Amino acid sequence: MHPKDQEPLDALLARVRACHLCAGHLPLGPRPVLQAHADARILIAGQAPGRKVHASGVPFDDASGERLRLWMGISRETFYDPRQVAILPMGFCYPGRGTSGDLPPRPECAPAWRQPLLDRLPQVRLTLAIGLYALAWHLPARKGQPLAEAVQSTCARPDAPVLALPHPSPRNNGWLKRHPWFEIALQPLVRARVAAVLATQDEKRL
């Protein structure tokens, strides 16, 4: 077994937070933003931090986070408790602006860090894959499938280990207006799954 395979999560997180792998491509420089603990039972797989999150260093510290917490039906306290919720975007640093919003996650990040981090989250029971990049990683069989189809087919399944979600950014309001069934019919199911997973964790602590 390679020594790094035995590396504690805290040590791995320290290396991730010191990463400069794609520093030359980042307009504001590297500042990896993530949250993880070995006890976490829910994993949020987002896209990449925006400018505001880069400035604060707090994941989903923006309007996207407010909407995501509403969808999940949890408080900020629960959301930012790493023993309950792990937050690992597909890219850990702000990638910069493109012509129609932020650029995609840097391609160097996920291959370098993602699997070692996931290997150290043995208690995760539910993954929320937000957007197409997270969907391609966590549900590769659905790569290329329209997002709406993936959202419908996963969120409606009571036992699905991965739920595909649209991005909660205000920039995605158009998608939500075109697909009103998500917030009407599926958001309550997402809340119920999140509550059930966190309840099992509370029972374990007791």
Description of the structure:
It is built from nine helices and six strands, in the order αβαααβββαβααβαα. It is α/β, with parallel strands linked by helices and 206 residues long. The longest helix has 25 residues, at 181-205. The N and C termini lie far apart (35 Å).
- How can the largest sheet be summarized? 4 strands, parallel
Query: Cα distance, first to last residue?
Result: 35 Å
Helix percentage? 40-55%
Structural class, from secondary structure content?
Answer: alpha/beta
What is the topology, as strand order, of the major beta sheet?
2-1-5-6
Q: Helix and strand succession?
A: HEHHHEEEHEHHEHH
Rounded average pLDDT: 94
Number of strands: 6
Tell the overall outline: globular
Using brief descriptors, characterize the structure shown.
206 residues, alpha/beta, four-stranded parallel beta sheet, two-stranded antiparallel ribbon, 9 helices, 43% helix
Helices, strands, pairings?
Blueprint: H1 9-17, E1 42-45, H2 51-56, H3 63-72, H4 76-79, E2 85-87, E3 97-98, E4 101-102, H5 109-119, E5 126-130, H6 131-138, H7 147-155, E6 162-165, H8 173-178, H9 181-205
Summarize the structure.
The protein is an alpha/beta fold and about 210 residues long. It is built from 9 helices and 6 strands.
